[in-house]
Amino acid sequence: MATPYDLIVIGTGTAAKVVIMRAQAANWRIAVVDFRPYGGTCALRGCDPKKMMIEGAKALDHTRRMQGKGLQGEVRIDWTELLRFKRGFTDPIPQKNERSFEDKGIDIFHGQARFTGPNSLEVDGHPLEAQHVLIASGAEPVMLGIPGEEHLIDNEDFLALEELPSRIVLVGGGYIAAEFSHLAARAGAQVTILQRGERMLKPFDPDLVDWLMDSFHNQGIDVRTRTNVEAIEKTAAGYSVRVSSKGETDTVEADLVIHAAGRIPALKALNLEAAGVETREGRLSLNEHLQSTSNPGVYAAGDAAQMGPPLTPVSSHDAKVVSAHLIDGKPARPDYAGVPSVAFTIPPIASAGLNETQAQEQGLRFRISSQRASDWFTARQAAEPVYGFKILIEEETECILGAHLVGPNVDEVINLFALAIRHRLTTTDLKTTMFAYPTGASDIGSMF
Ligand SMILES: Cc1cc2nc3c(=O)[nH]c(=O)nc-3n(C[C@H](O)[C@H](O)[C@H](O)COP(=O)(O)OP(=O)(O)OC[C@H]3O[C@@H](n4cnc5c(N)ncnc54)[C@H](O)[C@@H]3O)c2cc1C
Ligand SMILES: NC(=O)c1ccc[n+]([C@@H]2O[C@H](COP(=O)([O-])OP(=O)(O)OC[C@H]3O[C@@H](n4cnc5c(N)ncnc54)[C@H](O)[C@@H]3O)[C@@H](O)[C@H]2O)c1
């Protein structure tokens, strides 16, 4: 006889935790399931561990940029120590998570969750039943369908490497390739990026990406765009990656080949058919409340839902929408306006709101204020020539529609633009706000 719960949550990442806390506060009886250690992608295999390691690379980069400007002496990355620094943060997380759930009376299960009926699941043979199920199973690397793809390692493997090999190839040219290449190159690896698209970092403004490419070239990162990876072969010395580009074929030799070619909702293992949960083109069919259109007892949030961009603040936002609808009975729906996003390259690139194409498609009348600002104080004090912005401003209202930034501190400054976009602030609102000086934010008033 299965144990009846009010809610079963599949996953223990950002989306799962937000809903669990809300349901627990409402005295719901909850079971949570994960086949990996508890904590999710962001805390254990994504944002946080990556940021801790990139902080090391940033410190090294800054020291190098300041050589001859008051600093002397070489520094280098000790990969093993950097990994230990990261693990000091990540290692305790699963146990802390489990204990926190148990203290709140939440039943915890380890294993793959698999639907057996509309409101029933099994976890490694153990049956579970509930009135509601939240699919917060996140995303997984997309299958590439190429010979030898089993040789690829993923983000989890890379962030756990005890030693960094000397020749690294990244398949794909998005967020993961950009961030991991900047880290690995500063740690001494020879890095090649094989990107099918015509430029890197597609979600970011093309002009700003062009400016950022200087930082890839300065690190000796070999960025090959319009390059399709066709096969990966194991060799005596490592791997041979076969590529095609503009009708030509070539091979790139590597010690390690990393999957950086995109992630899709992790739904395969869930046996959704048994629950009558419909999907369309690999995505769950959800209504505006993130509820399955075919099984009203099932909700989804975060990367598994993929209604908004697959980012941590979106997972948390989705989870609040689900909680409001499912637990509080409110007509909540997601609002993805002005979601800020940062690729933590060195320096970072950031965006919030609309890009030029989206603003045009929406028929908006807008002007663009854009400049490469290598000679501004913010760039000079950081000895970082990559600095620039592109701001989209609505003609009639002077509201900020979109902000695109690259350079020192933009990973923080973008949040002020996200605030402006979401709350329809105008250029006058921003120009008449006093920002602490000298900071990245104190440039905002000069950006339009
Ligand atoms: C390398 C990397 C770096 C990133 N950096 C950033 C960043 O800097 N900023 C940012 O905003 N976003 C970043 N992201 C994206 C961000 O991590 C995700 O958007 C976010 O973590 C998704 O949270 P989630 O709760 O939806 O899913 P997850 O945190 O992925 O949780 C899903 C959980 O479900 C479990 N699960 C899956 N299937 C099953 C099953 N059948 N049974 C049981 N359990 C299951 C998984 O093991 C996992 O623990 C990064 C992603 C990666 C890969
Ligand atoms: N800082 C952050 O917020 C951050 C960091 C890392 C990851 N993430 C999240 O994780 C997701 C996955 O990241 P990602 O970098 O794997 O994906 P991505 O979607 O950012 O980029 C994948 C790229 O790989 C290319 N590609 C696909 N197949 C290819 C092939 N066979 N050969 C060559 N190129 C190929 C695509 O053209 C695309 O540009 C992102 O969408 C993002 O939401 C976020």
UniProtKB/TrEMBL annotation:
<keyword id="KW-0285">Flavoprotein</keyword>
<dbReference type="GO" id="GO:0016491">
    <property type="term" value="F:oxidoreductase activity"/>
</dbReference>
<comment type="similarity">
    <text>Belongs to the class-I pyridine nucleotide-disulfide oxidoreductase family.</text>
</comment>
<feature type="binding site">
    <location>
        <begin position="172"/>
        <end position="179"/>
    </location>
    <ligand>
        <name>NAD(+)</name>
    </ligand>
</feature>
<dbReference type="Pfam" id="PF02852">
    <property type="entry name" value="Pyr_redox_dim"/>
</dbReference>
<feature type="domain" description="FAD/NAD(P)-binding">
    <location>
        <begin position="5"/>
        <end position="318"/>
    </location>
</feature>
<dbReference type="InterPro" id="IPR016156">
    <property type="entry name" value="FAD/NAD-linked_Rdtase_dimer_sf"/>
</dbReference>
<feature type="binding site">
    <location>
        <position position="262"/>
    </location>
    <ligand>
        <name>NAD(+)</name>
    </ligand>
</feature>
<dbReference type="InterPro" id="IPR004099">
    <property type="entry name" value="Pyr_nucl-diS_OxRdtase_dimer"/>
</dbReference>
<dbReference type="InterPro" id="IPR023753">
    <property type="entry name" value="FAD/NAD-binding_dom"/>
</dbReference>
<dbReference type="GO" id="GO:0000166">
    <property type="term" value="F:nucleotide binding"/>
</dbReference>
<feature type="domain" description="Pyridine nucleotide-disulphide oxidoreductase dimerisation">
    <location>
        <begin position="339"/>
        <end position="442"/>
    </location>
</feature>
<keyword id="KW-0547">Nucleotide-binding</keyword>
<keyword id="KW-0520">NAD</keyword>
<dbReference type="Pfam" id="PF07992">
    <property type="entry name" value="Pyr_redox_2"/>
</dbReference>
<keyword id="KW-0274">FAD</keyword>
<feature type="disulfide bond" description="Redox-active">
    <location>
        <begin position="42"/>
        <end position="47"/>
    </location>
</feature>
<feature type="binding site">
    <location>
        <position position="51"/>
    </location>
    <ligand>
        <name>FAD</name>
    </ligand>
</feature>
<feature type="binding site">
    <location>
        <position position="303"/>
    </location>
    <ligand>
        <name>FAD</name>
    </ligand>
</feature>
<protein>
    <submittedName>
        <fullName>NAD(P)/FAD-dependent oxidoreductase</fullName>
    </submittedName>
</protein>
<dbReference type="InterPro" id="IPR001100">
    <property type="entry name" value="Pyr_nuc-diS_OxRdtase"/>
</dbReference>
<dbReference type="InterPro" id="IPR036188">
    <property type="entry name" value="FAD/NAD-bd_sf"/>
</dbReference>
